[in-house]
Specification:
five-stranded mixed sheet, about 0% helix
């Protein structure tokens, strides 16, 4: 979408209620799921008292492709664009002190290719691999006063490529589909309130390309890498999703949602926005587009990812305190 396109407002029609989505398959005991870049696979993770568990399954049927486990809990996971490498972050305590580590595994046989120790002072809560598979970036959620950091390392040998700074603590980090940019989230406290922002870096020299603040959080890149979807959360006000041009910062499109909705994903063509609830009870998921569909659940649910072709989506549903099942369902 060209940056000259005027910003538009999508009015939300009255929701159509449905009991549950049309199920495709489920993964009991796991808590998060995301689609591969081409939509062929789903990467699932979960944690228990025995450590971290990861599964890679085919998107259509749920057939198991690869499973991995570790004695330490997984904080984040990502699958390379060619589906050959899976990366995870964890806290290695074998030395007695926690070392925040990026582990790289080969999907074909589950072999550990490399363990990359980082200088992170807090958990690495978000992770992404560059489109060419050459670099991996992980977000360090530091304290409010110190800001956040993005640790960028080379996949081939684990060497650090860059250490980038943001002004926040909670995080998402995403390479643009063309690999030219890396976007990172941040959140800080200003005058007693949370203020979120998204910062975009050029991967050629790691210079800052653009910054979006005022409660803005990164959601995902547009497929052509010319813009990013962000969401703005302001207390007691409608949540708004924006398609923002990169690097110019022009708002190309605005979608207005219900207050306290969190935006989980947007389809490649921008026609469907998947939202959940920020505040309890978190028992609904909503698809907003030309029509709006809201699903009701008997227990808390957390929205996940939409497949690139827009036909499937993921969500996690609580089954007990701190226990979840992941579901893959068909979009309305």
């Amino acid at each position: 979408m060209a940056a000259s396109v005027a910003a538009t407002l999508l009015l939300v029609p009255a929701p159509a209620l449905a009991a549950t989505p049309a199920a495709a398959w489920s993964a009991p005991g796991l808590s998060s799921a995301s689609f591969s870049v081409d939509g062929a696979l789903v990467l699932l993770t979960g944690n228990s008292s025995s450590g971290g568990r990861l599964e890679i399954r085919t998107a259509g049927s749920g057939a198991l492709v690869r499973s991995l486990s570790a004695q330490y809990k997984f904080n984040a996971a990502a699958l390379s664009a060619d589906k050959q490498i899976v990366a995870v972050t964890l806290n290695d305590t074998s030395s007695g002190l926690p070392v925040r580590v990026i582990r790289l595994y080969r999907v074909a046989d589950g072999a550990l290719l490399r363990a990359v120790p980082t200088a992170a002072a807090r958990d690495l809560t978000s992770l992404d691999l560059s489109p060419d598979g050459q670099t991996v970036a992980a977000m360090d959620a530091r304290s409010y006063e110190q800001g956040g950091r993005v640790h960028v390392h080379r996949v081939a040998d684990g060497a650090r490529v860059a250490l980038l700074t943001t002004d926040g603590t909670t995080a998402a980090v995403r390479f643009s589909p063309d690999g030219r940019y890396l976007a990172a989230n941040g959140r800080r406290v200003v005058d007693g309130r949370f203020v979120s922002g998204a910062r975009v870096f050029r991967t050629a020299d790691w210079s800052a390309a653009s910054t979006a603040g005022d409660g803005t959080l990164l959601v995902r890149w547009a497929p052509d890498s010319t813009a990013i979807w962000t969401v703005t959360l302001v207390a007691a006000a409608p949540t708004t999703a924006h398609l923002v041009a990169v690097p110019g910062g022009t708002v190309l499109r605005t979608v207005t949602l219900a207050p306290y909705d969190t935006v989980s994903d947007v389809t490649d063509d921008g026609t469907l926005v998947l939202t959940g609830r920020l505040v309890a009870p978190r028992r609904t998921l909503t698809f907003t587009g030309t029509a709006t569909t809201t699903y009701d659940f008997p227990s808390d649910v957390f929205a996940g990812d939409i497949s690139p072709d827009g036909t499937l989506f993921t969500y996690a549903q609580t089954t007990a305190p701190s226990a979840f099942d992941v579901h893959v369902a068909r979009t309305p």
